[in-house]
Amino acid sequence: MKRWKTVVGRLGTVLIAVGLALLLISFIPGIQSSSTKGRTIVRPERFMIVFSPGTITPQQEVQASVTVEGKLDIYLLEVDADLHFINGTFDYAFNLTDLQEILQEHPEQIKREQRVEDSSYELNFTPLKIMNATVVVYNQGSENAEMEYDISLKTSLAPSGKLQTIACFAAPIGSIMAIPWLLDIWKGRKKKITHIE
After folding, report:
1. ∠35-128-115 over CA atoms, to 5°?
2. What does residue 191 show for φ and ψ, rounded to 5 degrees?
């Protein structure tokens, strides 16, 4: 019985250490791997691809800050808007028909959606799996909308949300496993001290 208590107790202390290490790692800030910012006008019944980093992983986070004068719909879509060289210029092979098809027939590809009218909007998105990502703004109204945006892709060592969840479970479970073993050690030392006196 004492051997099992020792094994379980030591495993508990390992879980505590791992939980604390994961918690510390989750607070290491991410490194900005790409970004775009600017100010533009989106005309009525038009859309604009603002940011298309391609494939993103659970270690990456899309952060966006958008200020709109007028009315715009902002979408984070699970699509890859490929850039092609067409008629002497680079252009996206993703048009209004594609966008409307996604909005109507493939709502599962819409990861975030927000209508912004004369205000600001902040977006933070970390995917749960490897996926394509494109940030699109769409003016469905009848007037021009002016937009100022700052969008970046940050890369971290590991998904901080998952690390914090694991740490929140590992440390308490480790404590429960280690307490009986630590109490035995403390009682053993206390007995040794009383025998010496």
Report:
1. 60
2. -65, -40
Give me the amino acid identity at 14: V
3-state secondary structure of 127: coil
Q: What is the Cα gyration radius of the chain?
A: 26
Sheet with 120-125, strands from edge to edge, namely 31-42, 145-155, 60-69, 120-125
Supply φ then ψ for residue 29, to 5 degrees. -70, 150
Helix axes 160-196, 2-26, angle to 10 degrees: 140
- Whether residue 190 contacts residue 32, with contact meaning beta carbons closer than 8 Å, is answered with no
- Tallying the residues shown for the chain, one arrives at 197
Q: At residue 95, what are phi and psi to the nearest 5 degrees? A: -115, 180
- 29-79 per-position pLDDT tens digit: 888 888 999 999 998 888 888 888 888 998 899 999 999 999 999 999 887
Let me know the angle formed at the C-alpha of 97 by 85 and 70, rounded to the nearest 5 degrees: 95
Extract the tokens encoding 184.
């035995």
Q: How far apart are CA 131 and CA 54, in angstroms?
A: 8
CA–CA distances in Å: residue 156 to residues 52, 62, 75, 140:
19, 12, 24, 36
Strand, coil or helix: 34 = strand
For 29, the 3-state DSSP assignment is coil
What DSSP designation does 143 have? S
